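Bit of a strange request maybe. I'm writing a small parser for structure token strings and I need a real example to test against, not something I typed by hand. Could someone generate the tokens for this chain?
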Amino acid sequence: RIKGGIFWPKAGYVTDPALSAQNLAAAAALYGARFRLRAEVTEILQQSGAVKGVRLADGAEIHAPIVINIAGPGSAHINRLAGVTDDMTIATRPLRQEVVHLPSPAGFDFEQNGMIVSDSDIALYCRPEHGNHILIGSEDPPCDDHKWVEGDTGYDDSFSEQWTTQALRYAQRVPDLPISSKLRGVVDLYDASTDWIPVYDKSSLGGFYMACGTSGNQYKNAAIAGKLMAGLVEYCEGGADHDTTPLQFKMPYTGLEINAGFYSRKRPINTQSSFSVLG
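Reply from user aminoacidic:
Good idea to test on real output. This should exercise your parser:
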């Protein structure tokens, strides 16, 4: 028996992250952003202790005084290329995840009447999906095998017993859940930090910054994370020492201040973390 819960009537979710990313890219392009799609970074160019740009697999060089590592599950690899991991107490690495895609039970319009739910008792989250379907993901309890992978390419993207486990766990809440013999959903990677809290920080290499370790819970924060990183770059390049005197970032809508040092690459492991996708 569940004794209670918390309801956020204004909470939401992004049903099409690919489309929303395209929209953000289109908006950025209006302000001069340019994109190199399917380009692989093979080297972080450096000179006199500062970043100089990047070299791509085709040999092209892009020169820039500021480089920000926003490589998602590839962030650990990029940090190693930059040689900035020695002073980091918080590491990042890619974690394989499976998300179940199932139809709503007969007679209930989950797409219109359902909501995003975090159910820590069965260690699952779910949310509505287009076509009156349900997406079901794990909240990473100890009983779920954590499948860490070496890099962000070449990993096994086929479904495993984890898919069935998640479907059956959710069926404890919804006994009429139609579990199909045809497995549908998503297999992809999280960019998880040591304590599952993001790293928004500078690095030991001048001009090289990082916004990584965002696991599966920071996508909706992308816009404000971008403002935070812009503020951090301006603060550090203006001569401030963020390691000793962290940036105090003022939230543009609430007016509240965030101590950006909370997201430091050098922070102690946060023992208050859930050590899961919940952060």
